[in-house]
Amino acid sequence: MYSQSTVIVGGLAHIPVVIGVFSFIQKFFSKRASNFPQDTVPKKSPVKPVEQKSVPKPPPVAKAETTVVKKKHADVPVNIYRPKTPYEGTVIENYSLLKEGAIGRVNHITFDLKDSDPFLNYIEGQSIGIMPAGEDANGKPHKLRLYSIASTRHGDDFKGNTVSLCVRQLQYEKDGETINGVCSTYLCDIKPGDKVKITGPVGKEMLLPDEEDANIVMLATGTGIAPMRAYLRRMFEATEKEKNKWNFKGKAWLFMGAPKSANLLYEEDLQRYLTDFPDNFKYTKAISREQQNTKGGRMYIQDRVLESANELFNMIEDEKTHIYLCGLKGMEPGIDEAMTKAAAEKGLNWSELRPQLKKAGRWHVETY
Q1: What is the mean pLDDT of each run of 10 residues along the chain (368 residues)?
Q2: Terminal-residue alpha carbon distance, the chain
Q3: Could you say which of 25, 221, 237, 344 is the most buried, measured as most Cβ atoms within 10 Å of its Cβ?
Q4: What whole-number distance in Å separates Cα of residue 307 and Cα of residue 284?
């Protein structure tokens, strides 16, 4: 039995412990409340910032756009044939695209694909790889080279079982000797009936938009016209329109650079498109050895861009406009400089605008 005084003393002795436990519980729940303000703060309380709901929204929108782009390209054929297992296509035709007095050597070459299994299908804006016959100086097979496809998915004959290339023979001087490019020379020399190892197709950078009312600005030099030819055939050839159920309603503008008039490629077709579709097609040439720019120097494609700065950037400001650049890599700095000046005349900053166009999928470049 405990005396009354003993019980009271014992009870008093436990008071600090009880207070400590109460204090611990209070701190614990206060901490939880601070970690989960949504549980303790009323929804309409001004303490809760409005931004907590608005800030997270942009990322999902961006992801949705990215997903749409990937889904759009999901059906694009890629690497049906690889270097270890190429398809041997038969050469159907190989002819020169140049007129008398032209510089160099440029050929249009078509391959038969009908025996490929799986079928080597492709779409406009893609490339294929060519593996030249023979071996290099080390006794190893030559490495493949990529070439932009110059035909539509239906081929030049619209039957859907051929692919065509536009190839310039590479030549350069070294130690006083003229060196010929391995693969380009091989392709320019092959004859109908020859077998050629083909890989691909590859590439999604240069694909056309699906919209029929899109505007397409094309900047090309030399054989850089290859994908542009495919685009224009898709847009303006009657049989293509019928097969694709795609009726181009926008504006297509081709800036074409060449050293001489005799080096202009596919000129007859381009002139026909100008005559038949004057409201949809515009063709601007820059012939460096025959025309002069405003400063009295040679006329290059960048000079034509500057001349057309106002009209060109009126198109670029339209969200439906896509720009395609294809040709020698050396053309890029000149085009970039011209676009910078042209943009400035419209009060725009090209260094800021170009990345925006790229991000939006409206600036397409393929140079080599």
Answers
A1: 40 43 42 39 40 40 34 78 97 98 97 97 98 92 95 97 97 89 97 98 96 97 97 97 94 97 98 98 97 96 93 94 94 92 90 95 94
A2: 102
A3: 221
A4: 11
Q: What is the pLDDT of residue 202?
A: 97
For 77-80, which contacts have Cβ atoms below 8 Å and span 24 or more sequence positions? 77/121, 77/122, 77/123, 77/126, 77/201, 78/200, 78/201, 78/202, 78/203, 78/204, 79/199, 79/200, 79/201, 79/202, 80/116, 80/118, 80/119, 80/120, 80/121, 80/200, 80/201
Is 311 catalytic? The answer is no
Helix, strand, or coil here: 47? Answer: coil
At residue 32, the pLDDT reads 40
Tell me which residue has tokens 């579709």. Answer: 277
C-alpha separations of 239 from 92, 157, 161, 254 in Å:
21, 10, 15, 22
**H/E segment holding residue 256:** strand 252-258
How far is the CA of 3 from the CAs of 11, 14, 16, in angstroms? 12, 17, 22
298 φ, ψ to 5°? -65, 145
The reply to whether 148 belongs to the active site is: yes
User: What whole-number distance in Å separates Cα of residue 81 and Cα of residue 126?
Assistant: 14
DSSP three-state, residue 311: helix
What is the Cα–Cα distance from 129 to 165, expressed in whole angstroms? 11
Please list the alpha-helical segments (H only) found in 101-197.
182-189
pLDDT of the residue at 74: 61
Q: Cis peptide before 59, with omega less than 30 degrees from 0?
A: no
* Catalytic, out of 87, 122, 147, 324: 147
Two tokens, residue 362? 């409206």
- Give pLDDT, residue 226: 98
Q: Which of the following is catalytic: 81, 116, 124, 148?
A: 148
Q: Which of 280, 327, 323, 324 is nearest to 300 (CA)?
A: 327
**pLDDT at residue number 271:** 98
Catalytic residue among 23, 242, 319, 368: 368
* 368 catalytically annotated: yes
